[in-house]
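Hi C.,

You asked whether I'd gotten around to modeling the 111-residue construct. I have! Everything is below, sequence then structure, no commentary in between.
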Amino acid sequence: MDREELKPSVVSEWTGIPVQTIYQLRKHNNAYKPDFITTIVLCDLLKVSITEVIKPIQGLNIPESKTKWDMAAKQEFVYDYNKMDIEVLCRKYNITQRTATEYNKNFAREF
């Protein structure tokens, strides 16, 4: 907000978030934690990535995406899905079994 020279009253007006909430968020040493929707609304307004905001949370580890799903990666995934044990596959791609099933169905449909 400082960078954009936005006053709490203006942010409140634009977002519908109570001005008291905006003031609580500006206190760096307070225990107030906004709900997720409030965080998204503020990030959108301030053009800040949500990951920039939530990474500093103690103990939160946001893994980087391991896979770029280009056609070769999709083909490799479908091949692995048909050859590997589902638990091994899920560990390799860091996904759940349900996600693996959906990926396989969607990727196989593409070729």
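If it helps when you're writing up: Helices lie at 8-15, 19-26, 36-46, 50-54, 71-83, 86-93, 97-110.

Thanks,
B.
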